[in-house]
Design brief:
The chain has no helices and three strands. The chain is mainly beta. The chain has one domain. It binds zinc ion (ZN).
Length: 64
């Protein structure tokens, strides 16, 4: 079994590490961005993604 992780970046600037897991039973679900609520992925089946946030979007930036 191989575990492959990829980095998904949302339009809001958040980044997620995505891994796939294989379940013994089918699962249906979806993942939404924790910061902006955009739908990132919908799945249905035994292979489901697991997301871990690795980068938050920058807060409103002031001129530095
Ligand atoms: Zn987002």
């Amino acid at each position: 079994m191989t575990t492959k992780s990829t980095i998904i970046s949302c339009a809001c600037g958040a980044c997620y590490e995505r891994e796939e897991r294989t379940l013994p039973i089918k699962d249906i679900g979806m993942f939404e961005c924790l910061d902006c609520g955009a739908r990132v992925e919908i799945w249905s089946g035994r292979t489901v993604p697991v997301f871990k946030r690795v980068k938050q979007p920058s807060p409103q930036q002031r001129s530095a």
